[in-house]
Each structure stands twice: as C-alpha cells, then as structure tokens.
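The methods section describes the discrete structure representation at length, but only in general terms. An entry of this sort, consisting of the sequence and the corresponding backbone structure tokens, reads as follows:
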Amino acid sequence: MQIISGTAVAEKVLEECRREIAELAALGRKPGLAVVLVGDDPASRAYVRSKDKKCRDLGLHSVKLELPATTTQEELLAHVHALNNDPAIHGILVQSPPPKHIDEAAIVRAIDPAKDVDGFHPVNVAKLALEDPTGFVPCTPLGCQRLLIEAGIETSGAHAVVVGRSMIVGKPMALLLMAKGKGGDATVTVTHSRTRDLAAITRTADIIIAAIGRPHFIKAEHVKEGAVVIDVGINRVDDPTTDKGYKLVGDVAYDEVAPKCRAITPVPGGVGPMTIAMLMANTIKACKQAERR
C-alpha cells in the first residue's frame, strides 16, 4: 500500500514555481497575488496567512487585503475592480466563505477571468469543460490530479468515482478526469448525498475521490481491494487528548480503508498542501499569460 505524500509532491511543484519565478525575474517580471478576506473567521484567516506566507517565501508580490465583516457588497466590488486594474496583480482570490450579506457568486463573476486563479469564474469553468488550456482550474482538483500523476496512477480507462458534486472540487474534478491526456481519459461517475446505494457504486471504482465534507464517511465497505483513494476532506473533530481539543480527519476512515488500498492520501499531509502549491502555479501561469495578451 502506497501512501501518497501531498507534502512531498507540493514541494516538487513549489520547486518548479521557484525556477519559473527566477526566469520571470530575469525578464523583469514578478507574479502578483492578491488575497481578499472579509470578516474574521479564524479558519479563513489562517488560510489567508498561509497563502500570503507562501507567496513571500517564493518571492511573489503579495497583497493581503483584510476587510471588516461590515464591508458592503459595493465596497467589496470596488476593491475587486481596483485589483482587476492593477497591472502588478496577476491573480485575485476572495477567501470563501464571505459574510452572509455578501453575494459570493456576484463577487466571483466580477473578478477578471484572466486573474481568477481560483478557477471559479464562469469563463474558466467553460474553458475547463472545453479543455482550453488557457483557463484556470480550481486548485484542489488540480492538485488531486497532480498527485495521481506523480504517484504513477494510470487514469486512462480507469473507473473513477467522485464523491461530492461541489463547484470547488466535485464537478471540476470530474471534468479533469474525463479530459483527454495525462491524468485524464477516465470513465467518471459523480455521486453525492442523494445517490442511492452509494457503496455499491464506489466498490466498482478503481479511483475514489472523496470530497463530501463528512468525517470518516467513506468506510471499508465502500472500497474494493486494490483501489486508489484520494481524500479531499479536512474536518475538525473533537479530541480532548490534543492540546487544541480537536484533530483534523478526512472524509475517509483511514485506518479501516487503507489496508484495502493500492494507494491512499493521508489527512493531514495529503491533498491540503497541494491546494496552495497549485494556487502559486496558477498565479505564475496568469503572469505569463498576461504578457501575451
């Protein structure tokens, strides 16, 4: 059984990023990423901090815009438009979820698609469906695909079952796996909370992508012998034995599923590190494409 280390693969991606950043620097160019946070959600604040730190570690131009929870829709849109027009910024990310009074879909649509390094703008969703390589793919599914490639998992002709249908992971993951080429050409089934007899479907999978957001949801009964499992879930569960009073677990019951697997990602240390690494890669791609426009 192979444990697929997202930490190791993410470092490989970041090393590629460092080389590309150095090449751009020699041409007098510097990729820039702006991360916008509205409100003071602790988890969101931690994510924004880690993205800003990674940008600075790599030598990217980083803008961290922290706005109060009282920020209006119009004020947030004004900030987005200003970043759209800033030539030093190549990627824009508005941290999700925003406060309830903010129309998140409208904010996503307001971001210049050429700077939408999260890959959620309708233009980029369409480009993914059309297999247009100039589009931006959401970072988490892109990271999952890279993990499969780096682990030597053959996706061509494989039956992949995606558990979850969100626009953040499930739907783009299915499109990536179906696309022609490396890391694609799979036969894909998308399942979700309304799927009947889920275990009967997941047991037919060569590859399972678990992205349903429920701790330890995928159990041994869901997995056939020799399957590959990519666990996207990051769930906090109470654990009084830890200093923080909680621990992070995936959507997969790792201890009972892992022995049946050909390969599996752990939580933490699996998909998580890949998300930020692919965000950095998308920002560099945006910088390169900006020069060609």
